[in-house]
Amino acid sequence: MPNTHELPIAKRIDWLLDLARRHGDAYRSPEATLARKRYLSRHTTAMVALKCMDGRINIPVATQTPTGIVMPFRNLGGMFNLGWPHLGEVLQHHVMSMIGQGRRVVLLITYHYSKGEPKRGCAGFGYNKQASLDHTWEIREQVSHIFGQSHESVYPLVCGFETDEDAITLHSTPNGPTLNLADCVGLTEDEVAAQLSTLLPDMTSVMREDLLPLLMGNIEHLAKVREQNARHERLLDIEHREWMICLGRGFDWLHTPNLALIIGPYSPNLAHPIRTAADIIAGNMRAGRIPDDGFLLLASVPFDAIGVDRARAELKATFLANFAAQVITEHLPDLAKTMHARTAVLDWHSRRLELLGKH
Question: Which residues form the Carboxysome Shell Carbonic Anhydrase catalytic domain (predicted)?
Fold first, then answer.
């Protein structure tokens, strides 16, 4: 893969669209389709992740999980409120769909930080790790209020994501024991399973068994990251280097870390995360981490069926692109002059990205 961060903006956009095409082709291939079916037949628990828009937070990559297994919800800082109308409806619909199929759900409620430099942490919370952690417990209480306190069907699990190494930490209770996978490199699957059982005794055995592959995947990923660190190959990956703002849903094809700031259309105050994302892009340009010749604004909306559902997705994607462009223009007019805006819809079943046009 070329170092996309150093290419001219036109070539970066071409590369990105080719990445989306290649991902769709791979997702639809017989091998990938059968692999997902095998995985889901062995691990029936549905995995959902609430996470920050930060391009470094890539849970499928960090856990070596096949694409399409973890359902992502992204927002600035991982800030969510399940009382938000759109977020609550989308999340409830997904969870109830999984329950209707006889599956349990583990809801990963994440925060992120950097152990090496606080300023590489979460900008949404002003780099305050404790504030972001406190917020995850508030979300956990909301999940319990909606889906029940026993957590037999829906288990809200608070997780930390350390971006220097992509290490995941599992939390039991506020101020309670944790399981930091950064300390588990070299342990066997049985040893990790035993620690998980001790940490989360209230989680059903089925959920723990289905969560374990993600944990072992993260441990394997950590070992590779440490090899990269030893060769000094990872420094640029732990710094903000995003050169695109993605607004909407259906961006799991962006499996390459640190390219995009991904904003879900959930917050009633959607302008706030857009402005924050624009500030990060502008900062990347000023610091020379990305070229200053332009950035991409990509609005994408998934659809389940052709006809009415797709037509509405087109209108929604166009609205999101126009809204974001206006916010960025008012907030950072000089940055807006370098903006390249695109709209697209995503066929959810085939993962085919269909470009609608330029703005």
Answer: 101-174
Residue 21 lies in a domain: no
Q: Which residues pair with 337 in a beta bridge?
A: none
CA atoms of 172 and 159, how far apart (whole Å): 9
CATH assignment of the domain containing 117: 3.40.1050
As for how many domains the chain has, the answer is 2
Q: Which of 180, 205, 235 is the last residue of a domain?
A: 235
Q: What is the pLDDT of residues 64-83, one digit of tens each?
A: 998 789 998 988 788 999 99
DSSP string, 223-269: HHHHHHHHTT--HHHHS----EEEEES--TT--STTSEEEE-TT-S-
Regarding whether 321 and 293 lie in a shared domain, the answer is yes
Q: Which pairs with CB-CB distance under 8 Å and at least 24 residues apart come from 315-320? A: 316/248, 316/265, 317/248, 317/343, 317/344, 317/345, 317/356, 318/343, 318/356, 320/247, 320/248, 320/265
Per-residue pLDDT tens digits for 167-212: 999 999 999 999 999 999 999 999 999 999 999 999 999 999 999 9
- 188 and 156 within one domain: yes
* CB distance 255 to 61 below 8 Å: yes
Cα(207)–Cα(150) distance, integer angstroms: 14
In sequence order, which residues have a C-beta less than 8 Å from that of residue 9 and are 6 or more positions away? 243, 291, 293, 294, 295, 296, 338, 340
Same domain for 210 and 248, yes or no, is no
Indicate the pTM of the whole model.
0.86
> 276 lies in which domain range?
240-358
| Angstrom distance (rounded) from CA 10 to CA 98 | 40
Residues of the chain below pLDDT 50: 1
- Phi and psi torsions of 343, nearest 5°: -120, 150
At 257-291, the pLDDT tens digits run 678 888 989 888 999 999 999 999 999 999 998 99
